[in-house]
Amino acid sequence: MSAAIKLAVGSLLIGGVVLGLKVLAWWLTGSVALLSDALESTVNLTTALAALVAIQVAQRPADSNHPFGHHKAEFFSAVLEGVMIIIAALFILREAYEGFLNPRALDAPLEGVLINAGATAINAFWAYILIRQGRKLRSPALVADGKHLWTDVVTSVGVAGGVLLAMVSGWWLFDPIMAALVAVNILWSGSRVVKASLSGLMDEAVSEDSLSRIRDAISDAAEGAVEAHDLRTRHAGQATFVEFHLVVPGDMTVFDAHEICDRIEAAIGKAVPDSRVTIHVEPEHKQKHTGIVVLD
Fold first, then answer.
1. Which of 170, 183, 192, 202 has its CA 20 to 30 A from that of 243?
2. Structural domains of the chain, with CATH
């Protein structure tokens, strides 16, 4: 079992525990804000399952129907997660509206807040682990799951503050007001997750930092060539695809040109792990005098 799959399974287990604690907090208090927090945790659990399935699919080797691999499966999971976040926010807004129409005093608010705080602490720890390890493993699904959990942490803190404020002031409208604010924050978070995932599905280029490392690797390793141009990149899950044209002297042998290509592929692999490199070799009359200058 890979590290990414272990983390996805861990998200399922922790999501179940956190959901149970938040449902208990809502059951004790009857708070609309705490109910909204519990509803978001049901989304956490659903999306953790989606992330697990997506990661398993993404790690399948390339086949005849998918010669470039299955890496983009993780982006579909992240899009689903964003959509589920938005749906949860709409449910929360409905509950908040009902709370505005019929505000009521809460039962055992302090006990509910304390239980919810325990669930929030668990979520905060796991969100940190998912984001850190997801970036290390270059897993969009894990990073999206971690960012979603962190949003849950922030909203849970706000929910607790709203419940405590309602308890101290006796103005029970604070409870549905906080639930509505939670919903708005979740909508914003969901839109960001969807936007980031769609960029991967649309073959967006790698970051400027990664592109700079790729260009430097080509320039340093292409000794004997003339130039490299028409560099194109895209990322799909853990894989980075790199394509460019390499101009070599017209009298260079195929063997020597291939040796240069091997050096470049190895250099890019060190600069950007899990890269897939395609190089089109051209004679020197094809040079454009633009692109990447080869260092001597």
1. 192
2. 3-201 (1.20.1510.10), 208-293 (3.30.70.1350)
